[in-house]
Automatic annotation (TrEMBL):
Catalytic activity: Hydrolysis of terminal non-reducing beta-D-fructofuranoside residues in beta-D-fructofuranosides
Superkingdom per UniProt: Bacteria
Entry protein name: Sucrose-6-phosphate hydrolase
Similarity section: Belongs to the glycosyl hydrolase 32 family.
Organism of origin: Neobacillus mesonae
NCBIfam families: scrB_fam
Class of this enzyme: hydrolase
EC number(s) recorded for this UniProt protein: 3.2.1.26
Occurrences of domain Glycosyl hydrolase family 32 C-terminal (ranges): 362-461
Length: 477
């Protein structure tokens, strides 16, 4: 049963959606094939699952402002990961244990029911906080019955303890939580359960200062543990890493450790941390395994910025979006990310040419562009996106970079990664976003950008040869 407070909050959120609907839809920077909030602010993807054949994507949502606040769980569903349906609000922060936000979490299916796990965030008057790991259950995948907290804060951690990710292994349930130790170090903590309601702590499996890692951040958010090629891969978003050359240049990072986890002793022998994305706007990634066994990732195509709100869409009462779905594979210990196959369904109006026949592409707003280099690029190559973003490769330095104009300072900013060769690019362009897949998913650059409305041209520059394919991508939301 929905409490009075819960229905009131949901009503207020729907009123907000109605109030700004037109304004939001008319925004020239509104994306055409990415999931966005109907109004307000979206951040992390939550509760990703394929349940009874239907894909569900929930997301952190503040319907009342384009800043962070007491989060709801918004909800989209789809039968093909291409066409999405807006579902009723899944969770509203109505109860005492979540009054300042139904924070991030995940979903699992058991006995034909959908279980959502999330963090109940409570801020107290003395500016301290409390955290509760909570459960809500659904039989139809649309309405959720709250069961309240199933796990309280264990000893040894501050109240920055959140974002439960649950999975099943050998008929037992496991939960990994993002944490901060009392010494102020980020960690990922493992729990086990037989029934999804009672949880026992197994201990931290990784963290700042653990497993030979050295100083590695003051808080780890949104952990995820996946199995790829017989290895365990811990995805995590650490806060507090210092920039190190080309690494860790965004405010917060998202990346992974590959290793072997002993589920009994909670020992995780792992390698180095690797950033998942080389661009500007990528945070809090989460994955799910679909019914065909693919591991699919979504991330927030944005990042918390101290100076928020700053993006131009704020003037039209919405901000941020999720990435496209990406399929993950582990090859020689490295994650490769590629756009989910299904996105090919969006392709329209194919154009093909060889570089030399044309040196630019016009009328590009919402498109996919593929460049196959006849031979790996020798020298330098550059692609300019609508005068706002430049992708460059330099084979002598073995570096790829993405530059854009910073929307607050107006100055040029740049992200760089090492790349030993450039042989292929697959680029997803939407009205205000770029997702650039390099060499079949070896590296990815994700960025929001806000081009002038009169410029719809991509130009190419370099002594190289490639075959280009371009498709306009149809709208789906
Ligand atoms: C990550 C995060 C999570 C938290 C949520 C709140 O972006 O800070 O740790 O659960 O966002 O919206």
């Amino acid at each position: 049963m929905m409490t009075e407070r819960e229905s009131l909050l949901k009503e207020q959120a729907y009123t907000e959606v109605k109030k700004y609907e037109k304004r939001v839809q008319q925004d020239p920077y509104r994306l055409s094939y990415h999931l966005m909030p109907p109004v307000g602010l979206l951040n992390d993807p939550n509760g990703l699952i394929q349940f009874n054949g239907v894909y569900h994507v929930f997301y952190q949502w503040n319907p009342f402002a384009t800043t962070h606040g007491a989060k709801f769980w918004g909800h989209y569903s789809s039968v093909d990961m291409v066409r999405w349906k807006e579902e009723p609000i899944a969770l509203a922060p109505s109860e005492w244990y979540e009054k300042n936000g139904c924070y991030s979490g995940s979903a699992v299916e058991s006995d034909g029911k959908l279980y959502l796990f999330y963090t109940g965030n409570v801020k107290l008057d003395d500016s301290t906080r409390e955290t509760y790991q909570c459960l809500a259950v659904s039989t139809d995948g649309a309405s959720f019955e709250k069961k309240g907290p199933v796990l309280k804060l264990p000893a040894g951690y501050t109240a920055h303890f959140r974002d439960p990710k649950i999975w099943n292994k050998n008929d037992r349930w496991y939960m990994i939580i993002g944490a901060q130790t009392l010494e102020g170090k980020g960690a990922a903590v493992l729990f086990v359960s037989n029934d999804l309601y009672h949880w026992e702590e197994l201990g931290p499996i990784a963290g700042s200062g653990m497993n030979g890692l050295g100083d590695f951040g003051y808080m780890w958010e949104c952990p995820d543990l996946i199995q790829l090629q017989g290895k365990e891969v811990l995805l995590v978003s650490p806060q507090g890493l210092e920039p190190k050359g080309h690494l860790y240049n965004n405010l917060f990072q998202s990346g992974y450790f590959v290793g072997d986890l002993d589920y009994k002793t909670a020992q995780f022998q792992h390698g180095d941390f690797v950033e998942l994305d080389r661009g500007f706007d990528f945070y809090a990634p989460q994955t799910f395994t679909d019914e065909s066994g693919r591991v699919i990732l979504y991330a927030w195509m944005g990042i918390t910025d101290e100076s928020e709100p700053y993006q131009p869409t704020v003037a039209n009462n919405w901000v941020h979006a999720l990435t496209i779905p990406r399929e993950l594979e582990l090859r020689d210990g490295q994650i490769f990310q590629n756009p989910a196959e299904e996105l090919k369904k969006l392709r329209q109006d194919e154009v093909r040419f060889d570089y030399g026949e044309h040196e630019s592409l016009d009328e590009v707003c919402s498109a996919e562009v593929e460049l196959d280099f006849a031979e790996a690029v020798a020298g330098s190559f550059e692609m300019n996106f609508r005068g706002e973003c430049v992708l460059s490769y330099d084979s002598s330095k073995q570096e790829m970079s993405l530059q854009r104009r910073n929307i607050i300072t107006g100055l040029c900013e740049k992200r760089v990664c090492r790349l030993n060769k450039l042989s292929k690019l697959q680029i997803f362009i939407d009205h205000s976003s770029l997702e650039i897949f390099v060499n079949g998913g070896q590296e990815v650059f994700t960025a929001r950008y806000f081009p002038q409305s009169e410029n719809h041209t991509i130009t190419f520059n370099g002594t190289t040869s490639f075959r280009l394919k371009k498709w306009n991508l149809g709208g789906v939301i």
